[in-house]
Structure formats: C-alpha cells, structure tokens
Amino acid sequence: MQAKQPNRERIRELRESRGWPQEQLAAVADLSPRTIQRVEAGKGASKATLSAIASAFDCTVQELLETPEPPRPVPKATLFPRLHSGEGICNVVSGAHMYQNEYDPPTTEEEVELIGSFLQEIHDIGEMGDDAEPMHRVRWAHGLDESLREVEAAGFRVFCGRVVRHLPVGESDRIPMSVAVVVVLRADNPKILNPDTEHERLAAVFSDLAPIADIRKNAATH
User: Domains of the chain by range and CATH?
Assistant: First the structure.
C-alpha cells in the first residue's frame, strides 16, 4: 500500500493536547508503538495507519496530511477526573445549565439497564437539584454512592466535570452555558490517563456548539 506523508507536527500536537504518550495513542489507534514513533519521525504512513490515527483523534485523514493550507487550530482537551462519590457527582451536575453524557457501548441487557439507570438518575438530579433542600441532596448523594459502586463493580469508571459551551442565538450571538459532562468508560479503555491509580483522568474534546436537544428545561431562566 502506498505510503502517505503525514504532518508529523500536527499528529504530535493532537496527541500532546490530550496528554497521551506515544504508547497511549498506539493503544487507542490499535497500532504498535513503533508505528507511531515512525509516523512522528516523518517516515511516512500507510492509508490504513492514517485512518486508524484519525479515528483515535476523531478527525479526518486529510487533517493529518502535509498540506500548504493552514491547519485548523488544535482542539483543546479538557481533563475530567474520575469521581468516587455520589456527592462529587451531585456537585458537578447541580446548577449546571445543560447536561451531556458519553459512554462505552453496553454489550448485554444488564449493562444497558445499569448504565441507562445510572445516567438517568444523574440527569434527574441535575433537573431537580438547583433549589433542592439539604436533606434531598444528602439522599441523592447516598443513592448515587450505591449506584456508582454497582457501575464500578461491573467494570466501568465514571468521569465528571464542567465545560462552557456556547449556544447560538440569532445569526451571530452566542450565550455561554455551563455543561455538566458525565462519561462512563470501561476500566480498560485506552483513553483513560494514569489507569488504576488515584490520578485517573480522561482527556476529552467536545464541540463548542451545543445541540438544542441538550438544553435543560430551566436553561432559559439562567
């Protein structure tokens, strides 16, 4: 297969923006570390290799090739910590304008029920938690503690944080919105930084424009 000349600086910038060492990019792209080393050394890459790297970065192959046109800005990755308590999750979702979740696809009906129920519980707390009484927050945090333990026992990890996204209003204006992001990944997902340590993190890149469907019912009041 004919080798293509990748933009090695672009690939390195995309990798480093996520906090990934070369070995982690290799794992996410399902390639060997030696292949990543060769690509970043400017040794060329096959179409299959570039497709795998592009998939890891959620971009197109064209963005990874040498081109006389200025490349798009490197997307900024947000680091989300792994949360270990229901109280921590409540603190993230309560008061946010919007809610977004991501998850590794379930493979069984049990996983569908487990992940779906867990995310629904978090969503409901986000919807009701702005003006909740302290007693309600304590109960919600306790219930989430139990649900979180079940999710972790099934081999998943939960990462949470907030980002600011901008909702288009009219033709040019945008309104900044606080978005609570909850990500559920399998424990062996290669995108997890510092796996199996107390410093587990997830480097995630999200679009700046939020879908209308993501807006919570009370967003217009903020």
Answer: 8-64 (1.10.260.40), 78-221 (no CATH)
Q: Over the stretch 3-51, which tens digit does the pLDDT of each residue have?
A: 568 888 999 999 999 999 999 999 999 999 999 999 999 888 899 999 9
Please check whether residue 17 is in contact with residue 75, taking contact to mean a CB–CB distance below 8 angstroms.
yes
- Helical H segments across the chain, by residue range: 8-17, 22-29, 33-40, 47-57, 86-93, 109-128, 134-153
CA 118 to chain centre: 17
CA dist 75 and 207 (Å) reads 9
| Cβ count within 10 A of residue 4 | 15
Kindly report whether the global pTM for this prediction surpasses the value 0.85: no
Burial 23-55 (b: 16+ CB within 10 A, else e): ebbbbbbebeeebbebbbeeeebeeebbebbbe
To 10 degrees, what angle do helices 134-153 and 109-128 make?
A: 160
Sequence-separated (6 or more) residues with CB below 8 Å from residue 214: 98, 99, 100, 179
At 78 the three-state DSSP class reads strand
| Residue the block writes with tokens 């409901």 | 124
Q: What is the token pair recorded at 68?
A: 């006389």
Q: What is the DSSP string of 196-213?
A: TSTT-EEEE---SBPPGG
